[in-house]
From TrEMBL:
Gene3D superfamilies: 3.40.50.2300. This is Response regulator. The lineage of its organism: Bacteria, Bacillati, Cyanobacteriota, Cyanophyceae, Leptolyngbyales. PROSITE patterns: RESPONSE_REGULATORY. Keywords: Phosphoprotein. It comes from the Bacteria. Residues 11-136 form the Response regulatory domain. CDD domains: REC_Rcp-like.
Amino acid sequence: MSVEVDEKCKTIFLVEDNRADIRLIEEALKNSNVPHQVVAVRNGMDAMAFLRQEGEYVDAPRPDLILLDLNLPRKDGREVLAEIKADPNLKRIPVVVLTTSRNEEDISQSYDLHVNCYITKSRNLSQLFQIVKGIEEFWLGTVTLPPG
């Protein structure tokens, strides 16, 4: 009996308005052991269009993991999270809030909206890399993700 390893390329959907953070997160994931692609959008309206495969995103891949900032232009991350978790076609995609906010109300509201986990970004480069590597190892290496 042979065991088949899932070598399917994972899609990490990054919803982040800060270009520097996008570059840093992509860099932190560069030497991953898990085949993956990072797709980034910079506002909440584009995030929902991507997830619903609308407009320019009609051929968008279904993400295996969503990394979501809370403070976004056009539609904030709280609204995006609420829409994802209310949509029967999207609600099983794991969402990790990755934000600078340490506000207790943001944390509580995110969990009330069924976020899978809430992580506060570090402004320290090596700590941010450690956080992102930890997310990648846990969510793409350890966890059994729901089928697409």
